[in-house]
Amino acid sequence: MSHGLIQDARFWRFLFVLDEDLAAEARRGGCRHCGSVLHSARYPRKPRGVSRRVLGAEYERRRSFCCSRAGCRRRVTPPSVRFLGRRVYLSAVVVLVTASSQGLKGERRGRLRDTFGVSDRTLKRWRRWWREEFPVTPLWRGARGRFIQLPDLAQLPASLLQRFEAASPADQLVALLRFLAPLSTVFEHAQ
Question: In the chain, what are the domain boundaries?
């Protein structure tokens, strides 16, 4: 996958539009607990891995809502294709850097780390998450049966990315980010 996609402002704008659609859908659904109207409660983000000039100001906030009813006021954070849970790196960066680093050694791996500002420690943590934590998420346990050929868990996320057929690498990545979007909410992590 070309890292040029990461520097394409149109790609990030498209992901923003997808997130806005997910947020509108969540808001229309109202509070999960009492059914009341949801009010906007955006919170700040400082995403890493891509220049702020490429991202634009809309990446400095994540959509979230809170219940309007006194006594409830519960928060609803919609799924996101831009953010992967509480990680500070953008979801596309987490996927692409982890996938691209598999099998790389020495100078080539160093260039990849330097390009995205990802430390060895962070990269190891991402690889461990893909190998150990992702396979036990409710999302993966519920979805793995829909794949004709299961991705090789030792090669995640690259092997998962390959399972999404699309007209272009960008469309393939967007399909994977849509698949992963439920992991971006607190609700999905609760077990």
Answer: 3-186
